[in-house]
# Entry
Amino acid sequence: VRFLAMFLLLAYSTSWLMSSYFHGLIAICISSCFQIQVKCFFVYHKLYPTKGISSPRNNFYFRNALRKITLIISLACFFCVVSKSQSNADLEEMAALADELITKDFDASLTESAKGLSLAKNDPAYYGYFLGLKGKAHYFMGHYDSAAVYFSNATAILEKNKAQKQLALISNEYAKLYRKLRKHNEALEWYGKAYRLFESLKDQSGMGMILNESGVVYEYMQQYEKAIENYNLSLIIASNLKDTIGIAYAYNFLGGVYGLKKDFKQATYYLNKSKIFFAAKKDSFALTLVTLDRARVEQQTNHMDEALLSVDTVIQAATKLSYPELLKDAYFT
# Structure
């Protein structure tokens, strides 16, 4: 039983190590050492079979072989954990950078995602996630057909490999695409999937994000009270977590929906609070979105000079980013 347990542990470690060619080579060397130890024992047993396996001489050799095998397996596990942790850390860092660059430099984000794909060929969770990030970049560039293809391929890979965290994040992006195309039912379906995944992961921050994002669909459907309910629930979650970014976004969404309801006093109140939080975080992209919402409120309350100034600020930011949808929204406002 002890012998079998160690063999299974080594087999598992070997399969884990096979995440790259270098680690595969290490695994082969470890496996070879293991086989040599086993063969040496059985050859010795054939040469000295007189007193059976329990004889002092054979028992000593057997225990000595087991000690060496245990050392080999321990080293295998050590290399396995260290290399896998480092690999995941590198991919996580690369994914975070690719995601951050989406609102700053589309080309740089696509380049970073391409690098990630080449390194994550043997890691389905991150491979699917990088595909999704490429889709997200194309979405922001206004290439909706390309975004749809990337999102479809990414979610298929992530669902197959049960990568729940990455699937939840990309499902949110897929829902945004349907929301942009005004396909409300499909958008709510994907938001529902994302919310359930975050809920299963006990990720309250993710749940709050989905409540915010899905609220916009209800705005488009003119179900303003349902949207406000979502935003308030998100605000409660973010406040409990002391998540200032989550709080800022909840205020921003509340400001937007109250503007649609023509309750400009409430809209201005929430947009001003949102601006304070985003300014503290120096989040220029989020501040641009708040500025656009403020311009709409200023226009409808006949503060035209302020509205024009806000729109000019948004146009400059959208032009610098080469963000066609934001630029269109600014000109339309």
Observations:
- Residues 142 and 322 are 10 Å apart (CA to CA).
- Confidence is low (pLDDT under 50) at residues 81-86.
